[in-house]
Amino acid sequence: MRMRQLTLWMAVGGMLGAGMTLRASPALAQVNPFRQESAQRLSDADFKALSEAASALLARPDLKAGDKQSWANPKTGSSGTIIAEGTFQHGSFACRRLRYVTLGRGQPPARTAVLGWCDTPQGWKIASP
Predict the structure, then answer these.
(1) pLDDT given for residue 36 in this prediction
(2) What's the total number of domains in the chain?
(3) Are the C-beta atoms of residues 50 and 100 closer than 8 Å to each other?
(4) Contact 118/90 with Cβ under 8 angstroms?
(5) 98 bridge partner residues
(6) In a domain, 11, yes or no
(7) What distance in Å separates the CA atoms of residue 129 and residue 120, rounded to the nearest whole number?
(8) pLDDT tens for residues 35-77?
(9) pLDDT confidence tier of residue 15, bands split at 50, 70 and 90
(10) Range of the domain at 87
């Protein structure tokens, strides 16, 4: 499987649920699981590191539940871990569920979000309700 560039600036608002659709847009969705208090907000560089970690995890052809990919930005103190939780089908697409645990600017508490990603002909897209 070739590595595809992810952008978590895409519609990250959709948590998994019934009636999912696939979304990809250049703007953040109104409901953003990575939104944090201003003291904990992730910078553009943090999102880039988070996105690269998710891309690396999704690119693993033998990805299994429990596999992890960590990221950190020493300049901001932000860090996180992305954990594979399993696979599912959405129509004809093979999909993977990832749990994101982020610590914005080194300030507890850590935030957790679960997103589903589906492998489409246009690349990995977030599955959302």
Answers:
(1) 53
(2) 1
(3) yes
(4) yes
(5) 84, 115
(6) no
(7) 17
(8) 555 556 899 999 999 999 999 999 999 999 999 999 999 999 9
(9) very low
(10) 21-128
Q: Examine residue 9 and state whether it is found in any structural domain, yes or no.
A: no
33, part of any domain? yes
Pairing of strands 93-103, 68-73: unpaired
Amino acid (1-letter code) at residue 113: A
In DSSP terms, which residues pair with 68 in a beta bridge?
83
Q: Do 27 and 9 form a contact (C-beta atoms < 8 A)?
A: yes
HEC letters along the chain? CCCCCCCCCCCCCCCCCCCCEEECCCCCCCCCCCCCCHHHCCCHHHHHHHHHHHHHHHCCCCCCCCCEEEEEECCCCEEEEEEEEEEEEECCEEEEEEEEEEEHHHCCCCEEEEEEEEEECCEEEEEEC
Tokens 């594979």 sit on residue: 84
* Entry pTM: 0.74
In the block, tokens 């847009």 appear at 25
Q: What gap in Å lies between CA 64 and CA 66, rounded to an integer?
A: 6
In a domain, 34, yes or no: yes
